[in-house]
Amino acid sequence: MDCSHIQFCDRKSQVDLSQLQALFQLAAFWAQNRKIADLAEAINNSEPVVSVWNGDQMIGFARATSDGIYRATIWDVVIHPDYQGAGIGRKLIETVLSHPRMNRVERTYLMTTYQQGFYRRIGFQFSNPSTTLVLYNRPLVSSLPAQAMQARD
Length: 153
Hints:
Shape: globular
Structural class: alpha+beta
Number of helices: 5
CATH superfamily: Gcn5-related N-acetyltransferase (GNAT)
CATH architecture: 3-Layer(aba) Sandwich
CATH topology: Aminopeptidase
Largest sheet: 5 strands, mixed
Distance between the termini: 67 Å
Order of helices and strands: EHHEEEHEHH
């Protein structure tokens, strides 16, 4: 596939949220039900944000969060199925990693369910798999006994 016409864009304002939502629904099982408002907030709180375009069609996307020096995490890497296998995913990750918020970071993390081989080919390594912890958001419930809560009031 000739990808010389594919454009990479690192301007958040250029992300078409409707196209991003459609791309996630098509190619990202983990992001099937994301809402436009939530996508906008995630993008607003991420740097860099990179989208990939074939003309006016979004065909790829990734975002990252970073402290700029020690740690970063890459999120939501997705390539339209018609463009997978053409090197666009590799270029997308390289574009994210070359961004000034990312290029000096000591460790960059990412999570993937099925694409470990792809990420290993571009330099990612397995770390200690037993160290991954997840805290799911839930209503805040105090761990203080009821008497202590009343004493605070």
